Amino acid sequence: MDFGFTNEEQAFAEEVRAFLRVNPPESFPETGMDAGYGSGPHSRAFLQALGARGWLSMCWPRQYGGQELPMMRKLILLEELAAGGAPFGPLAGCDQVADAIIGYGSEALRRDVLPRIARGDATFWQGFSEPGAGSDLLALKTRARRDGDHYVVDGHKIWSSHAGIADYGLVLARTDPSAPRHRGLSMLVVDNLLPGMDIRPIRNMTGKVYHYETFIDNVRVPGDYLLGRENEGFAQLLRGLDTDRFWGRFYKPASMRRILGQLVDYANATMVRGAPLSRDPVIRRRLAEVATDIAAVRILFYRIGWMIEHEMPVTAESPLAKVMADETGQKLMALGMDMLGSYAPLREGSRWTQLGGHIQHLYQTSLGHTIAGGTSEILRTTIATRGLGLPADKVR
Amino acid sequence: VDFAPTPQQQLLAQSARAFLQQHCPIERVQALALEPAGFASDLWKAMAMLGWTGLLIPQEQGGGGGSMLDVVTLVEEMGRACLPAPFIQSAVVATSILLDASTITAHRLLSSLALGDRIATMALVEESGRFDWEPLDTRCEAPGRLVGRKLFVKDAHVASDLIVVARGGGALNVVLLPVDRKGIRVLPLDAMGGDKLFEVIFDDVEVKIEDLLASEGCGKDLLAPALRLGALARSAEMVGAAARILDLAVEHARVRVQSGRPIGAFQAIQHDCADLLRDVMASRALVQEAAWLVTTGLASDAGTAVAKAFSTEACLRVARRGHQIMGALGYCEEHPLHLFHKRIIAAGLDCGDTSQHLETVASSIGLS
Questions:
Q1: Which of A293, A299, A323 sits opposite B285 (nearest CB)?
Q2: Which chain A residues have a beta carbon less than 8 Å from that of B265?
Q3: How much is the pLDDT for A29?
Q4: Model confidence over A270-324: pLDDT tens digits?
Q5: A7-122, which class in CATH?
Q6: Is pLDDT at A73 greater than 80 in this prediction?
Q7: Where are the domains of chain A?
Q8: Which of residues 180-219 of A touch B (CB under 8 A)?
Q9: Which of B2, B3, B246 to mutate to test the interface with A (most CBs of A within 10 A)?
Q10: Which positions in chain B touch A391 (Cβ < 8 Å)?
């Protein structure tokens, strides 16, 4: 066992920190809201700056413009960006789509899309959920029927993150309606600009927009924009979701550490009845306790990263760490709200706001985390049945 | 970053599990729990033959030259078996103190500990109940006399040697005494289980200069690392016990049928089991990381404190939820669940409880 970083890895971490000193996060315009996962706001310009450094494609095969660096580099990049509070919103999603396209996309898809991802010019949304298909994803109704060398797609997708400011959707659609629910599904890469795409924002409780719903009306998608094989979308989705839960949360502990640090500074500097808040035994204990939770989430994610790198299944591990990361986030943000007291509801930019007004925003967004990407209930069932081998709770 | 145990660690874990399954099955643990001494000397001798009691002692001193990563690997298996033996007291805590003391007496005792001929335990805690060296009421000069009383001393009934921490003048003295030295009285405390606990009274006990392990003022340098290793080993023990509870609970949920289906098909039970798995996996990863920090010499108090504080609370959750999942069965004395639960409680209290370790964490994150 070795929990340390090599000299090259440490040098790379320092390179990322140096990059952030030269390119401070606040100097990049925000193109989409911070959803609180730890990757900051969506900033196209920041993504392009990372692309210019070659960091978006560094782990890809050379034939697609990559440097074939080990996966650990990606983990270090994500952790350092989150620790520095950088606005790298769509990075992890883009990276996964790139891996999928490299893994089982057509040559046309690789040629058209990979160079744009590498530059930070292409971002993606996931078109999985539908109004009638949330936790029961297999109830999805969106259709894609073959018409010559195209697919014609019809349907309604919802809760797609940043869809309105992205370039392509990953749309899961039914290509064989006569097959059983978990068969006959296919994944298509759909250009936002195609005729028939109508993408509308959904304002959330923070007052900002993160999710969109998409009405797909007779949209013609080129046949070679099929990702993987026709009617095998579900197996692919499951494989993807296992790692999705990892890549979508890996950097969250680093970000929680940053917020914890801000709360510690606040506790040290805030006087309550003549003594610093940091001496309040309850606050002190809650801060220390959540610090141990964050440390646990971090090491669990590193373990999963190591398992993925060694091609071990992470069926129970990734949902387990995802649930823990999101519940720890909720605990941390609730503690932040408690500590700020009367000041807690004040938004950024308000008179008298504390800690930049971020805590109320992060508190609100944290509520969505245990719902998005698989609710904690669905995931606990997954851990119990697929990880521990307990029998399925079937409706009869 | 590499989470794979070395081939030697895999071998250690496998052979430990096989040995304990054969020589320390749960029925034997249950039988021992009902005996006043609760100690199997044949088992202890066999463990010494396997090199376990000398694992932390360097090879040139006749030991196994193992690291803390090896120790947590082995101790997790001991926790899984709920092994009743003074391993952590003697082969980790006392051994660490004796190794750091490097006096002739200490060296001599180390070889006997490794051989399984003698057993050492530490007498530190007093009425405050805290694993701390201040304030202490026990007084000792070397040469001179030792006067005072210690509480919550583990396994004193089977120990041959005591490591006693006391105040002498303004300094902290750490002395090594045979248990049968005149004036030492060992009185059992009647505890619910987990550890065998004793009050040890020092009634004007003679202390010779060669009994001194730490020269005046250096006592802290012996104690701090020993308590750190002890806390880490006890965390690994809790992980092992909690992992076993998880196995028992999942197995029960699979086979216990109510309302026409296994209770493990009910989501309420499934979700509890998922949380048990989380608590076991997260605790284990933190303990391994902290053991790695200690092994590489990066020894941070914070790493161990995080591991102990987290795993104590997490493994207690596992024990309590485990009881709920197991239902009335787990409430019975004849079911072993309560022994694992009590072991976790005992280990959680040893070498610093959650509050004490969380205070270390609080300082480490910068709280003033």
A1: A299
A2: 390-394
A3: 94
A4: 999 999 999 999 999 999 999 999 999 999 999 999 999 999 999 999 999 999 9
A5: mainly alpha
A6: yes
A7: 7-122, 126-230, 249-387
A8: none
A9: B3
A10: 254, 261-262, 264-265
* CATH 3.40.50.150 holds for A126-230: no
Instruction: Using the predicted structure, report yes or no on whether residue B79 has a pLDDT greater than 50.
Output: yes
- CB contact residues (below 8 A), chain B span 258-277, against chain A: 261-262, 264-267, 269-271, 273-275, 277
Percent of chain B with pLDDT over 70: 99
Taking the CA of residue B95 and the nearest CA in chain A, the distance in Å comes to: 24
| Average pLDDT, integer, range B241-259 | 97
pLDDT of residue B25: 98
Report the range of poorest mean pLDDT among A74-78, A234-238, A323-327, B34-38: A234-238
- Is the pLDDT score of A241 beyond 80? no
Average pLDDT, chain B: 96
Task: Enumerate the residues of chain B whose CB falls inside 8 A of the CB of residue A392.
Answer: 265
> Region B185-204: what's the mean pLDDT?
96
Distance from CA of B157 to the nearest CA of A (A): 36
So what's the pLDDT on residue A396?
A: 46
Contact B119, B158 (CB under 8 A): yes
How many interchain CB pairs under 8 A, A with B? 154
* Residue carrying structure tokens 């020894």: B299
SS (H, E, C) chain B: CECCCCHHHHHHHHHHHHHHHHHCCHHHHHHHHCCCCCCCHHHHHHHHHCCCCCCCCCHHHCCCCCCHHHHHHHHHHHHHHCCCCCHHHHHHHHHHHHHHHCCHHHHHHHHHHHHCCCCEEEECCCCCCCCCCCCCCCEECCCEEEEEEEEEEECCCCCCEEEEEEEECCEEEEEEEECCCCCEEEEECCCCCCCCEEEEEEEEEEECHHHECCCCCCHHHHHHHHHHHHHHHHHHHHHHHHHHHHHHHHHHHHHCEECCEEHHHCHHHHHHHHHHHHHHHHHHHHHHHHHHHHHCCCCCHHHHHHHHHHHHHHHHHHHHHHHHHHCHHHHCCCCCHHHHHHHHHHHHHCCCCHHHHHHHHHHHCCCC
Distance of CA A268 to the CA centre of its chain: 33
Instruction: Compute the nearest-CA separation of A270 from chain B (Å).
Output: 11
Closest chain A CA to residue B7: A1
Show which of residues 276-295 on chain A sit within 8 Å of chain B, judged by CB atoms.
276, 278-279, 284-285, 287-289, 291-293, 295
Q: Is B362 on the interface with A (CB under 8 A)?
A: yes
How would residue A235 be classed by pLDDT, with cut points 50, 70 and 90?
Answer: confident
Residues sharing a CB contact under 8 Å with residue A174, sequence separation 6 or more, in sequence order: A140, A141, A142, A143, A144, A184, A185, A186
1.10.287.130, 3.40.50.720, 1.10.3720.10, 1.20.140.10: which CATH number matches A249-387?
Answer: 1.20.140.10
Q: What is the pTM of this model?
A: 0.96
